[in-house]
Amino acid sequence: MATDSAMTGEQFSTLYRQWAARGNHLYPSEFVVRTLLGTYPRHTFGGGWEGRAVLDLGFGDGRNFPLLLNAGARVAGVEVAEDIVALARERFADAPVDLRVGTNARIPFDDQAFDAVLACHSCYYLEVDDRFDDNLAEIARVLRPGGHLIFSVPHTDNFIFRDAKAIDRHTFKIAADPYASRNGTRLAGFADRGDLELALYRHFANVRLGFQDDDFYGIRVAFHFGVAQRRV
Description:
Blueprint: H1 4-21, H2 30-37, E1 39-40, E2 43-44, E3 53-57, H3 65-70, E4 74-79, H4 82-91, E5 97-101, E6 114-119, E7 125-126, H5 132-142, E8 143-154, E9 165-168, E10 171-173, E11 186-188, H6 193-201, E12 204-216, E13 219-230
Parallel strand pairs: 3-4, 3-6, 4-5, 6-8
Antiparallel strand pairs: 1-2, 7-11, 8-13, 9-10, 10-11, 12-13
Helix pairs in contact: 1-4
Organism: Halochromatium glycolicum
GO molecular function: S-adenosylmethionine-dependent methyltransferase activity
Protein name: Methyltransferase type 11 domain-containing protein
């Protein structure tokens, strides 16, 4: 019998193949571009990305790879299914990216392997027996002391949580995904910014958060995003 994560892997493999058939129209999320390259009152990265080791955790269709590579980073990626990894290897065959199969709580890289982990719409996906803290602990494991986590986490008003079953205050089983790709999947979500900060502070310091709330023609996409540093 397939686990929730295996089912999600199959569903996402199909989804990414369908997207790939439409053409190579890949663009990073706005918060990723702004966080990596922008200058703001509460956040800026100094020193650039040249030579830094960056893990794109849950890279999906690989839309962040060109941005990271153009910035000079050494790029690796993790996804939940071999089909997704194979599709990205084919698409980015000429790019120096190290792509592997794994999950948020089981990242197939050594301790302190990365200067930064980019988790764009990914770090809140939970295996059946895992908690959000397990994901954060694993991300911290592969980061060097002082390394950065760049992430997003959905607000509980996000469309994906409609009719979801609450397992605990911050864990939900998805039941009514309008795209039918995540039903049965467990996701972490946070209504309160302070609760998200508390969840992060066990493994990370210097947390800086932002928030985005969009209405895409009836689909509400509301999520926290931010940067945090692995504790030294």
